[in-house]
Amino acid sequence: MMNLNPHASADYLPVSVLRPVGLASGESRVSEEQLVRKIRVPARTDVESPVPSLKVYPLYAPEQLAELVEAYSALDLSDEMRERHIDLLNHVQRDLRSHEVVRADASGALQGFVTIRRGIEYVSSQDGSPIVVRMIHDVLDTFENAEGVLDVITAASTVMVLSDVYHLHRSASDIAADAIGSPWDDDDFSLEGKSEEVPSVRVECHIKGRAGAQDEFVRALGETIETYSGHLGDFDEVSGMAGPAYVVGPFFPGIWFTEDQVEQRQDTHEDLRRREILRTASLIAYSDIRRVRPNGDRTILPGLRVPTLVAEYASPEVMDIASLALDPNELHPATVFGTDLSDIRMAQINVADLQDRSYCAFVGIRRTLSLILEAGFMSPLLLDIRVCHTLGSAYLDDIAERIAEIMMEQAVSDLTSLTTSLAGYEGQIQVRFRVPEHLLQAAEDVVSEDWPQARQAVPERSQGHEFLTPIVMEDKLWPHQGEPYVPTLLFRPMPSEIEVESEPLYFAVEELCNRMIDDVDAEVERIEVLRFQEDGADWIEIEELAPFACVEPFLLLRAWVKGVALPAIVSTLTMKTETLQNFRMADLVRDFAHTLGSLEYDWTMPAPMPASVTDLTDAARKIFSRSEIFVAPLYLVALATDHSYMIFGDDLGLDGREQIARCCQLAEGGDAQFAEVFLGPPSTEFMVAVRDDLRVGRREGVEAVLATFLARRVHQLLESGEGDESSALVSFLARLYVRKALGPPEVDFVEIAKAEDLIEDLGSADLSPIDPETLRAIIGSARAFTPPPNGAPIYAVTAAIAEAYENLLDELYKKPTSV
After folding, report:
1. DSSP single-letter state for residue 214
2. 3-state helix, strand, coil in the chain (%, to 5)
3. Among 798, 746, 817, 749, which residue's Cα sits nearest to residue 778?
4. For residues 318 and 335, what is the distance between their CA atoms, to the nearest angstrom?
5. Are 394 and 438 in contact (CB under 8 A)?
6. Does the N-terminal peptide bond of residue 316 adopt cis geometry, omega within 30 degrees of 0?
7. Can you tell me the distance from the alpha carbon of 625 to that of 74, in angstroms, rounded to the nearest whole number?
8. Torsion of CA 320, 326, 329, 335, to 10 degrees
9. Residue 190: its pLDDT value, please?
10. Which helix (H) or strand (E) holds 142?
C-alpha cells in the first residue's frame, strides 16, 4: 500500500510511504510520521552548464514549461515525436514539484531538454522504522536538437542527482540517530563518538528509464551514484564501520537485466505489459556484495559455514592484486573475464580464506530476468543466477560452498528488491541457479539447506507474490572473454652466477613490507620466491631453497602478512627492492614465469654481456680519460624497459648507480654481490645502462649514446633549456666531436661536418636548408675540436663543446655593424 506523505513542505520532495507488511499500530504510525518528517530533500536544485556556449537551467514554473512547449513545437520534427514529447511535458506541468526539467539553449534557441521524475519511498516496517529509504530518479524523456547537447545536460544533471542523494543520506542519518534520541547536528555531520548500537538505515538509489533512447543518460546517472556509494556512501570513515545511514546503488530497471537477444519492441498488449513490469522491476548493478553493510566490514563478507572464507567484489584493481595469491600457472584473469567489465548483469567475486589467501578463487556471476505472462500475471518472473567463469581453487569443497552461499545471498537481495519494486504486480517469482559440474553438489546442498531461512529473510512485500522453490541445474562455463595474455621476456641471464642467501632476501622484503603496511603488530609469516620447476613455475619458501645459485638479475617474491600476499621485486646484485609502481601484478607474475621458463636461455648457466656493451665501453674509454666508465645492459638494471632507451647514472640515486657499477664488476669476473663499490662524483663518471642496439630515439649505435650523454652535460653546464633549436645545435656539435674522436686521425674534418646524416638533424633547429654561410659558421665554431689520442676528462670535453656552441650562436645571431 502506498500513501503520499501529507506532511512534506512544498520546498521538499514528497515522500511516499510503503507498508508492505500491513498497517502499523497507532503508536507505530506516530513514530513513522515523526521519522518521515525528517526526510528533507530540496525540490529545487540549481544546475550549471559546463560549456559556456550552452545555457543549461532547470524549469520550475508553469510559464517556463509553456515556453519550452512553444519552442519545441516550432522545431521541424515528425508529428509523432512532437506529440509524444508535448504530451509528456503537459503532464509534467501539473506536478513540477516531483519533476525536474532541465533545458539547454544556445543564443536563445532551444537545443535540448531532459525530464526526470524524482521521488522518495519510505518502506516502513511493523514498528514504523524504515526497512529501506529509496531515492528514485526516473528518466522520462530526453531530446537534443544538436549533437553533443545531451552530454552537456547530462553533466549538469548529475549535480542534481548528487544533491538529492546527499540530502536524503543526511536525512536518513537523522532518522537512525533519532531512534536512540540523539539527532545529528546539521552543522557537524560527523560520527565522532558514535555508539555501535546506532541503528543503520539503508538508502537505495534507483535509476529508471525506458530502454533505448535514454540508455546513455540513465547509465551516466548510475555512474554518478556508483561514485557516491563507493566513496561517500558511509560517513564513518574513521572506524571503518557502516554509519547510521549507508548508500547502496545504483539500482537499474529490470529490463536492463534481460538477455541481449530478447526482442523488446513488439506492440501486442502482452508485450507492452511485459515491458512495463520489467521496467518497473529494479535490481542492483553488478552485485550486492560490493556494497557497505550495517555494523560490519564494508568490503568483505564472511562465510556462513566457514566464517574465514570471505567474499569481496573483485574490481579490476582488486582482481589484479588478489591474483598474486593464485597459482602462477593459472590463466591471466583478463583472459578469463575479459577487460570490458561494464555489463551491469555480471559481477566478478573474489573468495579467499582470511587466514591464507592462497586458498582462493575468482568467480563470474551473471544475473538476468525473463518473464512469462498468463492473463497479465507473472507466471513466473524468472531470476536466473549463473556462474559463467571460475578461476583458482573453485573446485575445492569449502570454496564451492562459499560460492553457493554468495549466489543465495544475491538471490535474497534481488528478491527483496523485486518484491518491493513490483508491489503493484501479482504473480510468481522463480529463482534458478546454474552452475558448472564442479559446483553442482555444493549448490544443491546449500540451496536445500538455506532456502527456508532465506525465504523468511525476504519480508512479505505483497500478498500477491508467490515464491517458487529454486531450481538448481548444471550448465557449462562460458568461453574465455579475453585474448590470451602474451607475456614479455623481462631479462636474460647475468654474465656470472651468484649465490643467494635467505637472510639478505628476508631483510629486504621485510623492510618493504614495513613501508607498505601501517600495522606495527604485523609480522611476515613466510616469504616465497617464484622459481621454475619441472612442472612449471611455482612459489617456493626461501628457507627450502637458500642458499641457491642464481643467474637472474631480479627475483619475484611474495611475503605473507596476516594471510595477505605482498609482492616484492629484489635485485640479486644489490639485494634492494625495486619499485612496483608501474606494474600490474597479474602481468608481472606471468612475465616472470614466462622468463624463467623460456627455452631461449639456459637458466642454469651465465650468459655473456652483449657485444654492444663492450663496444660502447671501449669507445668511452677512448674518448674519456681520468674518468670512471660504467656501461651495463638495461635488462640487468631495470624491468619493463620497453619504452626506455637508456638510463644515465646522472638520473639515478646512489642505489641505482651502485647497481650499474655492480653489473660492470660482474662482467669483469668480480664478486658483484659482495664486493664493495667505490663511486666518485657523478661529474667524473660515464655511467649508463643501454639496450642491445644502443638505440637513442631514431638513432642507434655508439656515437648516438656518447653524443646524447655529452649533449646533456653541455646543457647542464650552460644551464640552458633543451628547446628544439638548442638541442639540435648541441647534438650536432656533440656528434661531430664523437665522430672526430673515434675516427682515424687522417679523416678530413670538413667532410665529417658535411655528412648528410648530421646536416639532416639541423632541420629541427629551423636552420634547414643549410646555406653555405651557415655551414661555414658551424664548421668554424667546431674547428677547435682536437680530441687527444688518449682521451680527455669528461669535464674538458663538455667545456669544449659548450664553447663551440656559444661561438656558433655569436656567429649565427650577431647584429650587423652600423656604418
Report:
1. T
2. 40, 25, 35
3. 749
4. 16
5. yes
6. no
7. 85
8. -40
9. 35
10. strand 130-144
Q: Which of 276, 260, 256 is nearest to 215 (CA)?
A: 256
CA distance 252 to 304: 29
Full DSSP string of 439-499: HHHHHHHHHHHHHHHHHHHS----TTEEEPPPEEEE-PPPPP-SPPP---------SS-EE
Task: State how far the alpha carbon of 266 is from the alpha carbons of 141, 183, 202, 273, 439, in Å.
Answer: 20, 52, 37, 11, 38
CA distance 246 to 248: 7
Angle among Cα 635, 640, 645 to the nearest 5 degrees reads: 65
Q: What is the pLDDT of residue 763?
A: 63
CB atoms within 10 A of CB 814: 9
Neighbours of 685 (CB within 10 A): 21
Residue 348 grid coordinates:
566478478
313 forms bridges with which residues in the sheet? Answer: 349
**Closest to 371 measured CA to CA, from 277, 253, 470, 461:** 277
- Walking along the chain (819 residues) 10 residues at a time, the average pLDDT comes out as 54 86 68 88 87 90 91 83 85 88 92 93 84 90 89 91 91 78 40 42 86 75 83 47 73 89 65 89 87 49 89 88 92 93 91 92 96 93 97 95 96 89 90 97 96 79 79 97 93 89 90 78 86 90 87 94 91 86 90 91 87 94 92 87 77 85 74 64 89 86 93 87 70 88 78 73 61 71 78 92 85 55
3-state secondary structure of 246: strand
Widest Cα–Cα separation across the chain: 111
pTM flag (> 0.85): no
Please list, in sequence order, all residues whose beta carbon lies within 8 angstroms of the beta carbon of residue 188, skipping any fewer than 6 positions away: none
For residue 617, how many other CB atoms are within 10 A of its CB?
Answer: 20
Cβ atoms 378, 385 nearer than 8 A: no
Q: How far apart are CA 495 and CA 606, in angstroms?
A: 5
| Three-state secondary structure string covering 282-293 | EEECCCHHHCCC
* Residue 700, Cβ density class (10 Å: 0-12 exposed, 13-18 middle, ≥19 buried): middle
Apex 783 CA angle, 781 and 789, nearest 5: 135
Q: Decide if 239 contacts 193 (C-beta within 8 A).
A: no
Q: For residue 468, how many C-alpha atoms fall within 13 Å in the half-sphere facing its CB?
A: 16
Of 101, 404, 369, 170, the closest CA to residue 251 belongs to: 369
Tracing cell 568461453 back to the chain, one arrives at: 479
Rounded to a whole number of angstroms, the distance between the first and last alpha carbons of the chain is 103
Q: CB neighbours (10 Å) of residue 793?
A: 14
Q: Cell match 524504515: residue?
A: 130
Contacts 24+ apart (CB under 8 A), 611-620: 612/690, 612/692, 612/693, 612/694, 612/702, 613/667, 613/690, 615/694, 615/702, 616/688, 616/690, 616/694, 616/702, 616/705, 616/706, 619/702, 619/706, 619/742, 620/686, 620/706
Q: Alpha helix (H) ranges present in 608-689?
A: 611-623, 654-667
Cell of 101: 526539467
The one-character DSSP state at 754 is: T
Strand, coil or helix: 331:
coil
**No. of H helices and E strands in the chain?**
21, 27
Q: What are phi and psi of 177, to 5 degrees?
A: -65, -35
Q: What are phi and psi of 432, to 5 degrees?
A: -125, 130
Contact between 733 and 804 (Cβ < 8 Å): yes
CA–CA separation, 357 vs 682, rounded Å? 46
- pLDDT at site 9: 66
The C-alpha cell at 308 is 574465514
